Amino acid sequence: MKPKLLVTREVFDETLDYLAQHCEVESNQQDIPLDPGTLAQRLRDKDGVACCLTDRIDDQLLASCPQLKVVANIAVGYNNIDLAACTARGVMATNTPEVLTDTTADLAFALMLATARRLTEAEAYIRAGQWQGWHLKQMLGVDVHHATLGIIGMGRIGRVIARRAQGFEMRVIYHDPVRLAADIEQRLKATYASKDELLAQADFVILQMPYMPQTHHLIGAAELKKMKPSAILINSTRGGIVDDAALIRALKDGTIRAAGLDTFEGEPQLNPGFLELKNVVLAPHIGSSTEATRRAMAMTAAKNAVAALTGGTPPNVLNPEAKSNK
Q1: Which residues of the chain carry a pLDDT beneath 50?
Q2: Number of domains composing the chain
Q3: Active site residues
Q4: 220 and 244 Cβ atoms separated by less than 8 Å
Q5: Model pTM greater than 0.85?
Q6: Residues 27 and 42 in one domain
């Protein structure tokens, strides 16, 4: 008998075809978000789940699904999963690293360029019929080339962003709990700095780290005041890392010049204060959203799930010790 697996949101046909070769698959192709009660009910007889960041996998849910063996997240982040609870109950948890690194780095750069050159503001200006012709001081932005880029979080995506910055001849400084080896710093042309040094020096600050208790409101009112008034903040990683209310105040008061945001606290809810501002570029958490990348993410999660359900160890397992606890 094939193991049973639930796919919580709509995925691509090839993903379902692959899963069906190995599992009895129930999929939510209607793409209707499942509330916690419905998710628990549909998982009670399942051996595995392929889920998204919108699905909370906590101890309460796991307790009601004793048959569950694997939680395959279709994302690189996994703050929607209680990893300790999974490990204690012998449930392997997996994610999809590597396949979205370049695409997410591209989006961070897109936000930086769009914010620096006021592209969304300029487009709205044209659409509103306000453009009456060229003049010298129209829509003045700031240069990205030769500017100082500060990257907070120098993991896979942070490093790719640093490589992109070389093409713009930017000076790159970074902060991370773990300093890179000297040869990697040299290859990336990146210089280590304390967080305060980075905030004070950078023309652009890009955040690129996971959300966890230690990174909650890593950027708040105090940190924003340490930035240059001309600086631009880019959050292309996770909501909650920035204190959104403090950022709105800083953007209104001119504490910093502008911000480009792909993630928000409490998303999809959005602090309405952002909508009143012209000096912010807003995107709906689309960092990995290209067709090729999303297809690769879904298939990576599927392969992780199948490996776990057929007696193997998933290539992207987050808690390998869980296997011995089942």
Answers
A1: none
A2: 2
A3: 238, 267, 285
A4: no
A5: yes
A6: yes
